[in-house]
Amino acid sequence: MERIQEEDDVLMYCLYFTASRFARNISKLADEAIDGELAPSYYYLMLVVHFHPGITQKELSERLSLAPSTSTRFLDKLEKSGLLQRDVIGKQSHITLTPSGEATYTEFRQSLKTLFANYASILGKEESELLSKTLHEANEQLEKK
Description:
By secondary structure, the chain is mostly helical. It is 75% helix and 10% strand. The chain has helices spanning 2-13, 15-33, 40-51, 57-64, 68-80, 99-123, 125-144; strands at 55-56, 84-89, 92-97. Helix 2 packs across helix 6, helix 3 packs across helix 6 and helix 4 (57-64) packs across helix 5. The termini are far apart.
């Protein structure tokens, strides 16, 4: 009995394990709610571009905590799909959504509302908001290290 309690304690209080488990569960809900042709990460990139038209790739990478090579791959795919455009000014690329990208962004925002409603119905609205805020703040601290 003592070994089972020890196992339960390790699994419950190990932030790595619980965060990974949570990520898998929330990813399943996101996949169900975000019914698009792209992985959710691409839509979040588009969200940032929507709110910051003309953003540079460097700024975009920093806002999303992405490696430059990852953001390049994402941007290449979205540009090829006609959802965004990059305008080179000097040495920097400035990124904006195309009209098709704006329409896709609008659909994504509706999917986010569905996603929130789905997990809020399970966790509760206030708990969902608090958990998201807590995770955001923890990520900010971890990224400062």
